[in-house]
Amino acid sequence: MTGSKMAGDAEIDFLGLTHELETQELEAPGGVGSPQLYGQLLTLYLLKNDLCNAKFLWKRIPQSVKSGNGELSLIWVVGQHMWQRDYPGVYEALRKDWSESIRPIMSALSESVRKQALNLVRLAYSSINVDEFAVFMGLPVAEAKQAALSEGWTLDSQARFLTPKKPEPVLSATLPNEQHLSVLTDYVSFLEN
Fold first, then answer.
1. What is the pLDDT of residues 89-138, one digit of tens each?
2. Which part of the chain is the CSN8/PSMD8/EIF3K domain (predicted)?
3. Whole-angstrom distance, CA of residue 20 vs CA of residue 37
4. Helix, strand, coil: what percent of the chain each, to 5?
5. 3-state secondary structure of 32
6. Over the stretch 14-55, which tens digit does the pLDDT of each residue have?
7. Which residues contact 58 (CB under 8 A, 6 or more apart)?
8. Contacts for 63 with CB less than 8 Å, ≥ 6 apart
């Protein structure tokens, strides 16, 4: 994901910002960046679902910077819940009042986590209870139902179950047997020469 639409239709280049912040961290005086730099970089790693880099960044942030900025710890709580695949915990941790520099990234992260959860349910479930789905999506029941229906899912209102619309299978380009045999013969002939 190279960018995302944010409030006011401003385009933010998250990939470019990540590279810029990594460079700033490397070039920081004394090897220690600002709390804002660490907060944004940690949040961007979470947005990219790059949990390994997020964890390594958390470990290399000096303790004095961590203890002097409470928002860093709150960001890392989001990361911990993501690491454990605790979706309700992720949504709860995301419901904070983030600083101006973190808010747009957290908004994109929240949207990304919901899309991942929706896709996971689509692939893993043949049907799911509406209440369970709402918890998994971190949304009120009515909004969760609406989100599922807008994706083409079906709702059994009496049983209160949603049936996900399965993704279309991706057809891979396969060679016909004769053509495959011909390519293999050409390859073996080439190796023998």
1. 999 999 999 999 999 999 999 999 999 999 889 988 889 999 999 998 99
2. 35-168
3. 10
4. 65, 5, 30
5. coil
6. 888 888 999 998 888 888 889 999 999 999 999 999 999 999
7. 42, 76, 79
8. none
